[in-house]
Amino acid sequence: MTSTPGAAPIETDAVIVGAGPVGLFQAFELGLLEIRAHIVDSLAVPGGQCVELYADKPIYDIPGIQVLTGRELTANLLKQIEPFKVPMHLNQEVTRVAKRTDGRFDVETSGGTCFVAKTVLVAGGVGSFQPRQLKVEGLEKLRPEQVCYRIPEPAQCAGKKLLIVGGGDEALDAAIQCSSPGSNGAAGVALVHRRDSFNAQLTSIARLGQLREQGAVQFIAGQVAAIEAAAGRLSAVMVLGADGQTRRVAADIVLVRMGVSPKLGPIADWGLALERKQIAVDTEKFETSTPGIFAVGDVNTYPGKKKLILCGFHEAALAAFGVARYVFPEQAIQLQYTTTSTRLHKLLGVNPPTLP
Ligand SMILES: Cc1cc2nc3c(=O)[nH]c(=O)nc-3n(C[C@H](O)[C@H](O)[C@H](O)COP(=O)(O)OP(=O)(O)OC[C@H]3O[C@@H](n4cnc5c(N)ncnc54)[C@H](O)[C@@H]3O)c2cc1C
Q1: pTM of the prediction?
Q2: Residue nearest to atom 20 of ligand 1 (CA)
Q3: Could you say which DSSP state residue 306 is in?
Q4: 3-state secondary structure of 331
Q5: What is the DSSP letter of 195?
Q6: Burial of 146 per CB tally in 10 Å (0-12, 13-18, 19+)
Q7: Cβ of 298 below 6 Å from ligand 1
Q8: Which residue has its alpha carbon closest to ligand 1 atom 13?
């Protein structure tokens, strides 16, 4: 959903900051309580870490589902919230949240969308994803297509020598993907990591081993110490090896895959009590130090907190009841089962057979 800059603010019951798995499930739990919500995410697609970091890897600890990938979980969650028609504002970061005199919140995004919301639910995970930067002199002067942090499009790689930096899943996935036959037509793929051991899935490490044996990936143990470039064009990277030797590795593109650094970003400026860069919440309703602002999922902290999707789902269920106190202050909110409640069936647009 896009917004028109300068348009009147959108009035809503709740704004969910973050479309990761917990933000998406939060929308479902709010929907069951008939609380109108909008979701905002700085990324172009929903799914948070599940899609950004491990889209095609298996998850085995979602209750009742033996195995599914990060992408499949996201698709299922999106399907689950369909009945509530929750507007999603992607590609825009929530930059400002401020309490109004009427008790509601002004919420603004980098895309110019403004909300007036009764409540805010921060489901910002590790924050806006910021790839860990490779700090080498002169790198910043190269064009973005010569130093990239995402796997380049095939057309950009064709006939080029690609040098990948990193030793985790992201780096190995990139090396495997870019060196596989018919993938992107790169003229060569080199992988540079501090040492010849990797912090990645065993299957990926095994596949990389095969590709190294076949000569499809050249591995160099060491650190990028300098670049060689003339007239803004990269020609090689100097790698300082663990043996103290510096090697020149020809390269047209440096692909940095050193993981993402957790950056809370603007969330840190909203006046919420933080503990070690996470938002402190109670464990009854997952409310923050500012009444009316809740925090769920990886972004929050409390005694015993575990950064697991299922924990975030539990938090979202209880936070929804906390939000309901602001949205329907006159009503006592009853817990209803989706199995038996005809009201919930109507909301979900389902018509199950009558139980015997
Ligand atoms: C490799 C890997 C494997 C994992 N495997 C498992 C597993 O098997 N089981 C399990 O339970 N957990 C697993 N996890 C952890 C799990 O992915 C997280 O617990 C989960 O993603 C947290 O969900 P979330 O919605 O709280 O946050 P996230 O998934 O981090 O999503 C947060 C979203 O908020 C957005 N955002 C942040 N700040 C703003 C802002 N200011 N404005 C707009 N948007 C914003 C971000 O762009 C992001 O999309 C794994 C994690 C990794 C890295």
Answers
A1: 0.77
A2: 309
A3: -
A4: coil
A5: S
A6: buried
A7: yes
A8: 308
Q: Is the CB of 43 under 6 A from ligand 1?
A: yes
How far is residue 58 from each of residues 53, 67, 72, 79, 110, measured CA to CA in Å? 12, 6, 9, 19, 33
Q: Which long-range contacts (CB under 8 A, 24 or more apart) does 198-201 make?
A: 198/167, 198/168, 198/171, 198/172, 199/167, 199/168, 199/169, 200/167, 200/168, 200/169, 200/171, 200/172, 201/57, 201/169, 201/172
pLDDT in tens, 243-278: 899 999 999 999 999 987 767 889 999 999 999 989
70 Cβ inside 6 Å of ligand 1: no
Ligand 1 center to 19 CA (angstroms): 9
Q: How far is the CA of 67 from the centre of ligand 1 (A)?
A: 18
Q: Are the C-beta atoms of residues 300 and 278 closer than 8 Å to each other? A: yes
- 30 Cβ contact partners less than 8 Å away, ≥ 6 residues apart: 13, 14, 16, 36, 37, 84, 121, 320, 323
| pLDDT tens digits, one per residue of 268-312 | 999 999 999 899 999 999 999 999 999 999 999 999 999 999 999
